[in-house]
Amino acid sequence: MENYVPVLKRTKLFSGVGDKDISKMLSCLGARLMTYRKGEYVLREGEHLSDILVLAEGSLYIQRDDYWGNRSILGHIGVGEIFGEAYVAPESGTLLNDVIAVEDSSVFFFDVKRVISTCSSACRFHTMVVQNLFFTISEKNRGLVQKLDYMSRRTTREKLISYLSEEAKKQNSASITIPFNRQQLADFLSVDRSAMSNELGKMRDEGLLEFEKNRFRLF
Q1: Which residues sit opposite 81 in a β-bridge?
Q2: Which among 3, 212, 42, 25 is positioned nearest to 133, based on CA atoms?
Q3: Core vs surface per residue 128-163: b (16+ CB within 10 A) or e
């Protein structure tokens, strides 16, 4: 686990905490490191969760399959991001979605009771982590509001424009890279892949953008 301390230091959860203090806190927070192969499930729908998770390496998708096997991708989890926090409250119930490894990944599990309850020594760094957790949850809620904005658009083109525009703002560039292939992007936006591909082709022909695989340039 010590090998991942530099990664944890760059996460929002441990923002402002030094390397040595993070190392000490791993035991304090009941940290466990789990590894997953590409395609393996990190979490499954219906499970109970009592940990806050942080992706230390790799890439994950939050997804859901309906009874007939139709898949919706609800979100992408990148290195350093927190997830699972929505299900750790006593009355939260079981997981509503699956979390799957898109590539070989390593995940930290932190006991939520230890995270939100400061240790006996009441170190200021533990208090800082609790504050960081609050701010991170607030930021994630903003992301959910943004996802609702994509989904509220009526047409495939409007959904694409909304999503790609927001990514351009986040990446502060007209040339962007997204974490989805074509099928995954269609699943994320809840649109038909063929219809989406046709719309992208029309937008390219109209001079709105150009693209290659998961790289886009907006004009």
Answers
A1: none
A2: 25
A3: bbeebbeebeeebeeeeeebeebeebeebbebbbbb
Gap between the Cα atoms of 10 and 55, Å rounded = 12
Model's pTM, two decimal places?
A: 0.74
Residue-wise pLDDT tens digits, 115-172: 887 666 656 678 888 888 888 888 877 777 777 888 889 899 999 999 999 999 989 9
Question: What structural domains and CATH numbers belong to the chain?
Answer: 2-148 (2.60.120.10), 154-218 (1.10.10.10)
